């Protein structure tokens, strides 16, 4: 049929691709006009779209019109300069171009032979990034370890937990699974608990050790040692420790060197989750926050959080790649080939959960090449400076307090309850969060620290400037005034 969209036609791709790029570019030009947090009600889209797919093809323009009118109102705009919730999930021109190229080539690079460039580029760019972070040479591909791109930090902690589990069970016997114990703090990402569930480690043996404000919510080596001693006296087997650089609640940094030495003493696998704050460590002045990484068995950071690399791209390095391979490798007949059988190459299918994998290294490669290290450092520093600016605004208003030390670009703060009525403080801050987000002008999120409901202001969206931070603070002040005035 004349004009019908064919599965893959170069000239149609050119025509439709231009339309799509124009649509996306216009979206970014107008992104500040949208409510940051979607204001729709659950089930809204069911009322706007038909209940079955069209029998005949529709025009792209009609689809884009529906995106504009029906889809975008239901989008929470993570790339908005007024987005300050959770942690950032960066997009960039370079990341988008790399994603587009990956989608265009559309190869499935599970083993070297399926597309040699995909495997080798991934090894190269993760070596580049590892050197930018000044990771120990054991984490680079020239040694026994190396890097691999996972989808998320949740996948990264799962695969290293599986490797650690199988490594210890080889030593103590597979019937000892019920005795294995995992350690982290109560600030560790919930992905650790999910990894335990998947790996068959009983949740009763997942120790999330208590932290408090006296150590800025970092994991205490003394408390860890006490927990390990208690477990060993009960016949249990400590085997995995997860430390965090930049916790979700308050961006706390655990003491890596001390924790690493404890892990080594007891023969435990030591994993460092730097999903958020790892990006900052490419700046020499923030590299100190991963001092002690030399004691780790694995290290992870999300390039898709704060490193201008479109989701998903989670970089994981291990010192012993054979531990991953022995735990995750399969070798069915239909995947056998000369290069793999001769152990001449890396097959990333054996470093991850799924078989299939996208050409994700392209976007990271493009980010590194099109921005360069100096510009990436400048980008990180700018967000940290904006967070310092917001911190100053908070401390300048006696109605508010900063709750935890600001290390990177996250500020944890709260509105003080009148008459120091802490019973009312949690509701007051909950109401402030709802009121601010309901304006559509900003989006922030919350956490709970020491039983107190805390507001989180995370700077990191690619388009955020000082004027956006200033405007966000005015929204918070205005809504706080309204709440306090109604008491």
Can you walk through the features of this model?
The protein is built from 14 helices and eleven strands. The protein has helices at residues 10-29, 60-71, 93-105, 116-132, 153-172, 191-199, 221-233, 256-265, 303-306, 321-328, 338-341, 361-395, 422-438, 466-485; strands at residues 146-150, 180-185, 206-209, 237-244, 269-273, 298-302, 314-318, 400-402, 410-415, 445-449, 452-458. It has a seven-stranded mixed sheet, with helices on both faces. Helix 5 packs across helix 10. The longest helix is centred in the C-terminal third of the chain and has 35 residues, at 361-395. It is globular. The model has no long low-confidence stretch (mean pLDDT 94).
Question: What's a quick, concise take on this entry?
Answer:
This protein is an alpha/beta fold and 487 residues long.
Relevant terms:
487 residues, alpha/beta, 7-stranded mixed sheet
In terms of structural class, how would the helical and strand content be classed?
A: alpha/beta
- Give me the Rg, rounded: 24 Å
Summed up, the helix count is 14
Distance between the termini: 68 Å
Biggest β-sheet: strands ordered side by side in the sheet: 1-7-6-5-4-2-3
Layout of strands and helices, then pairs:
Elements: H1 10-29, H2 60-71, H3 93-105, H4 116-132, E1 146-150, H5 153-172, E2 180-185, H6 191-199, E3 206-209, H7 221-233, E4 237-244, H8 256-265, E5 269-273, E6 298-302, H9 303-306, E7 314-318, H10 321-328, H11 338-341, H12 361-395, E8 400-402, E9 410-415, H13 422-438, E10 445-449, E11 452-458, H14 466-485
Parallel strand pairs: 2-3, 2-4, 4-5, 5-6
Antiparallel strand pairs: 1-7, 6-7, 8-9, 9-11, 10-11
Helix pairs in contact: 3-12, 4-12, 5-6, 5-10, 12-14, 13-14
């Amino acid at each position: 049929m004349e004009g019908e969209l064919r599965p893959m036609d170069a000239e149609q791709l050119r025509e439709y691709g231009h339309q799509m790029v124009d649509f996306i570019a216009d979206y970014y030009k107008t992104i500040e006009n949208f409510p940051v947090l979607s204001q729709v009600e659950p089930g809204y889209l069911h009322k706007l779209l038909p209940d079955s797919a069209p029998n005949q093809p529709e025009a792209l323009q009609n689809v884009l019109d529906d995106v504009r009118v029906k889809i975008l109102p239901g989008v929470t705009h993570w790339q908005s300069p007024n987005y300050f919730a959770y942690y950032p999930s960066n997009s960039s021109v370079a990341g988008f171009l790399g994603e587009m190229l990956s989608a265009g080539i559309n190869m499935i690079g599970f083993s070297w032979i399926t597309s040699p460039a995909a495997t080798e580029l991934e090894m190269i760019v993760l070596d580049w990034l590892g050197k930018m972070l000044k990771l120990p040479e054991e984490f680079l591909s020239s040694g026994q370890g190396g890097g691999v791109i996972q989808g998320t930090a949740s996948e990264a902690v799962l695969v290293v937990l599986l490797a650690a589990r199988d490594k210890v069970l080889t030593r103590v016997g597979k019937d000892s699974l019920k005795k294995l114990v995992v350690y982290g703090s109560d600030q560790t990402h919930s992905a650790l608990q999910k990894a335990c569930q998947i790996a068959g480690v009983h949740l009763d043996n997942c120790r999330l050790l208590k932290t408090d404000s006296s150590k800025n919510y970092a994991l205490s080596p003394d408390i860890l040692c006490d927990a390990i001693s208690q477990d060993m006296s009960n016949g249990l087997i400590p085997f995995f420790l997860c430390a965090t650089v930049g916790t979700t609640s308050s961006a706390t940094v655990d003491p890596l060197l001390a924790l690493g030495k404890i892990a080594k003493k007891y023969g435990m696998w030591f994993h460092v989750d730097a999903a958020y704050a790892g990006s900052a460590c490419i700046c020499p002045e923030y590299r100190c926050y991963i001092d002690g990484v030399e004691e780790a068995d694995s290290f992870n950071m999300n390039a898709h959080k704060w490193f201008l690399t479109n989701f998903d791209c989670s970089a994981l390095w291990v010192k012993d790649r054979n531990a991953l391979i022995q735990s995750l490798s399969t070798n069915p007949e239909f995947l056998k080939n000369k290069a793999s059988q001769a152990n001449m190459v890396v097959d990333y299918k054996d470093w991850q959960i799924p078989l299939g994998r996208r050409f994700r290294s392209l976007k990271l490669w493009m980010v590194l090449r099109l921005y360069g290290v100096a510009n990436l450092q400048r980008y990180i520093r700018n967000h940290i400076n904006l967070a310092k600016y917001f911190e100053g605004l908070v401390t300048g208003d006696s109605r508010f307090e900063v709750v935890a030390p600001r290390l990177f670009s996250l500020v944890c703060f709260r509105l003080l309850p009148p008459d120091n009525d802490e019973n009312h403080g949690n509701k007051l801050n909950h109401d402030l969060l709802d009121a601010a987000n309901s304006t559509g002008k900003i989006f922030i999120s919350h956490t709970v620290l020491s039983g107190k409901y805390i507001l989180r202001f995370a700077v990191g969206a690619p388009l955020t400037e000082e004027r956006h931070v200033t405007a966000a603070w005015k929204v918070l002040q205005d809504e706080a005034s309204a709440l306090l005035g109604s008491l």
